[in-house]
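Thread: Newbie trying to understand structure tokens

Hi all, I'm a second-year student working on a class project, and my supervisor (Dr. K.) asked me to get a predicted structure for one chain before our next meeting. I've only ever worked with sequences, so writing a 3D structure as a token string is new to me. If someone could post the tokens and maybe explain what I'm looking at, I'd be very grateful. Here's the chain:
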Amino acid sequence: MAKIPLYLAPLAGYTDQAFRRLCKDFRVDFLVSEMVSADGLIRDKAKTVNYVYFTDYERPYGVQIFGSDPQVMAKAAETLISFRPDFVDINMGCPVKKVVKRGAGSALMKDPQKASEIVREVKKALGDAIPLSVKFRSGWDAQNQNYRDFGLMMQDAGADLLCLHARTQKQMFSGHANWEHIRILKKAVSIPLIGNGDVDSPESAQRMIRDTGCDAIMIGRGALGRPWLFGQIKDYFDTGNYSPATKDMIFYTAQKHLEYALMSKEEFVVVREMRSQLCHYIKGMPGGKELRAKINHAQSADEIKSMIREFLQSSL
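---
Reply by user tm_fold:
Sure, no problem. This is what the structure looks like when written as tokens:
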């Protein structure tokens, strides 16, 4: 199979620098920041810039911004130029209530004209130096699935790349992604299209490419607690085979995740955030529920490391 680029999807609260670095270790091609507020970049830059910061190891790297005002979005894009990201992405797909009620994220799919204006203004601010991508959903709900026309409008407004998460806003993250929407949009547009939704194994990645013809794959929740998925997909595409994750590898990676997090955040923050991150590694394992309960009450990074080590030794 021809080389298919793999992207880590931006997931607020999960795809921080530590997790991005882990995914890079496991051969992901493109990384994207957590969702960054355009208003925050302008009005509270010192705090918001933490979500933008990245290292050269993370390249090729994109910064995803969200907002609802074309001029504010353009100003935010201007502030990003000095960071030299490899691309900027506009979030028009987030279904979360606090984003949608501000007219941002997937709410923009109900106002394609404003969405187009945002893309035009951001593209104007970035110029030709930094490519612009737009991530959006199939539509607002089952009765309003305007992904094809919306994608064409974003292309005409100046987007260099599109990403379709083939669910509606009302679906949130439930049900199944409709890959037929990706296939239809791919046939309609002339710029590259990334497919997103329900890829959680090398086999499903192959099916998405086969069924939709998309140019690249973006994986979000399927990689949580399984950053090695990117390497497995690449091996499967190259050879038709891949190595399953061993228990040793799972817990080694979980500990590495913790160590990476401590390199960029204060320990008390890491301990709190790792409670949700590490639970993904042990999901479905015998004794995993008890370990999750212990991690949720841990007070230090060393305590979490000891818990993981003990669990690994008792499980072998």
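A couple of things are worth pointing out once you decode it. The chain has two domains: 6-239, 247-315. Residues 247-264 form the longest helix (18 residues). Feel free to ask follow-ups in this thread.
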